Amino acid sequence: MTNGNRAQRPVVAGVDGSPSAMDATRWAARQAARLGEPLRLLYVADLPPLNPHVAAPPPSYASAWLDSGRKWLSEAEDMATDEVPELPVETDVRLGQTSDTLIEESRGAALLVLGTRGYGGFRRLLVGSVASTVAAHAVCPVVVLPAGTATVETGDVVVGADGSALGVEALGFGFDVASAKRARLVAVRAWHESLADAAWSGLPVRDELDKVTEQELRALHADLRPWREKYPDVEVSEHVVRTGKPSDALLDAAQRAQLIVVGSHGRGVVSGTLLGSTSQALLHTVTSCPVAIVRPKE
């Protein structure tokens, strides 16, 4: 895919020399090639706190971190061009707070790609402090790669299709990837009784549950219709699941997946919540494939 004459929006990968960041670089390189965009490799020197009585770090302190970053970026650039020869790659070293810098970078990016375990400022990704913050505030979609998943290139693209506006955006992202990779798209719609309270009419419980399931299936059909028309080549499987934990339904459907896609938050979340319980749970628990978190467009 080429981008014609429009402004380029690079795929940005966070680099810190860790194996996880190198995995993210490889995956990001392939996505940049697919999108027809350049790859931007970013190292953030998120310096540890110093003694509060020290007015400023010695020049050698920051320089050592920045020199390490340049070395790691050079290695990552070599890996990216080995993965995709002739891919346009740019590198940058920044001094600052990791999540703030990544969020700022997302404003001009097509996609932001991170590993789950890193060194330096990225080391907290595994427990979610950076990943959750970036996924909650980034402007572009954020893809987080668990360790060892950079080479996962086969299997379904599983999408959480909850009927929210972001759920529809997630479907669009998922269909685009599934079409490019000739993968099946599995659309998962989870519901639980609290979503059906308005439909409760005193009928036997089983009849009422069947009625709500049919309503959810019709709604899923409607959400899928425009994407099926846009991507007629994509095989689609639909799953409507009654569960109190949508993340469990997604995990069940994603046992042979190459990517899970969800909105950063969906229906049923508290107003103002930046990252919903489902996307949070997936970031913490998925180990078999990358997870894409789709954010609202500004």
TrEMBL record:
<comment type="similarity">
    <text>Belongs to the universal stress protein A family.</text>
</comment>
<dbReference type="Pfam" id="PF00582">
    <property type="entry name" value="Usp"/>
</dbReference>
<feature type="region of interest" description="Disordered">
    <location>
        <begin position="1"/>
        <end position="20"/>
    </location>
</feature>
<dbReference type="InterPro" id="IPR006016">
    <property type="entry name" value="UspA"/>
</dbReference>
<feature type="domain" description="UspA">
    <location>
        <begin position="157"/>
        <end position="295"/>
    </location>
</feature>
<dbReference type="InterPro" id="IPR014729">
    <property type="entry name" value="Rossmann-like_a/b/a_fold"/>
</dbReference>
<feature type="domain" description="UspA">
    <location>
        <begin position="9"/>
        <end position="146"/>
    </location>
</feature>
<protein>
    <submittedName>
        <fullName>Universal stress protein UspA-like protein</fullName>
    </submittedName>
</protein>
<dbReference type="InterPro" id="IPR006015">
    <property type="entry name" value="Universal_stress_UspA"/>
</dbReference>
